[in-house]
Design a protein that fits this description.
3-methyladenine DNA Glycosylase, Chain A; alpha+beta; 3-stranded antiparallel β-sheet; globular; 6-stranded antiparallel β-sheet
């Protein structure tokens, strides 16, 4: 991940990411990891994104989400990460959950933009999406990766403590995938339908990413519609 953001695009779907031109060298394990990923408190004057941000075209929202701070209030703590990779799923996209119409599973995709659509996949993982556009459209942006900002210790425990020791785990491996992100942030079925204008999960304005740092590619793991 190394502080990168990605947007990817194809004929029907789009995936985007942003990356630094000169990635930093990583320090040695344990204390070095913590020093490299020193927590950066989310500024109290950071502004929550308004509903109008999410009601725009899905591909535009995907690009503009890069650099924004996603915040999750979890058991009295604030977990935060900078969005660095996202994928757009538009109406008529064969790879989209809404391609065959509205169902009980994808109902939240048809809500007004600015809600969280969370689904269970492969019988073991959750993935989280930001619903976009007007009510009834059925479009969303998948959050593929974030860069940890706040709550690194909590994220590490959420990701690894149930399975293995957290001592030598790299922060680069905590939230660099859609399922990893959900596990680290404690996002599951209960968060499906969360209003991003509320106080449980929300997105702040964060950082502006230069267009020169935004890359596009085919979506990962998508063969139908790419």
């Amino acid at each position: 991940m190394r502080g990168s953001v990605n947007v990817k695009r194809s004929k029907e779907g789009h995936s985007v990411s942003a990356r630094n031109s000169a990635p930093q060298a990583l320090p040695s394990p344990t204390d070095g990891w913590r020093a490299h990923f020193a927590e950066r408190p989310v500024l109290p004057n950071s502004t929550k994104l308004p509903r109008s941000f999410y009601l725009r075209p899905t591909v535009q929202v995907a690009r503009d989400l890069l650099g924004k701070y996603l915040v999750r209030r979890y058991r009295g703590k604030s977990l935060a990460g900078k969005i660095v990779e996202a994928e757009a799923y538009c109406e008529g996209d064969p790879a989209s959950h809404s391609y065959r119409g509205k169902t009980k599973r994808n109902e939240v995709m048809y809500w007004k933009g600015g809600h969280f659509y969370v689904y269970f996949t492969y019988g073991m993982h959750f993935c989280a999406n930001v619903v976009t556009g007007k009510e009834g459209v059925g479009e969303a942006v998948l959050i593929r990766a974030v860069e940890p900002i706040n709550g690194l210790e909590v994220m590490t425990k959420m990701r690894f403590s149930r399975h293995q020791s957290t001592t030598h785990q790299s922060p680069l491996n905590i939230t660099n995938g859609p399922a990893k992100f959900c596990e680290a942030f404690g996002i599951a079925r209960e968060q499906n339908g969360t209003d991003l204008l509320g106080n449980e999960i929300y997105i702040l304005k964060g950082e502006k990413i230069s267009p020169s740092r935004i890359g596009r590619s085919a979506r990962i793991g998508v063969t139908n519609g790419r």
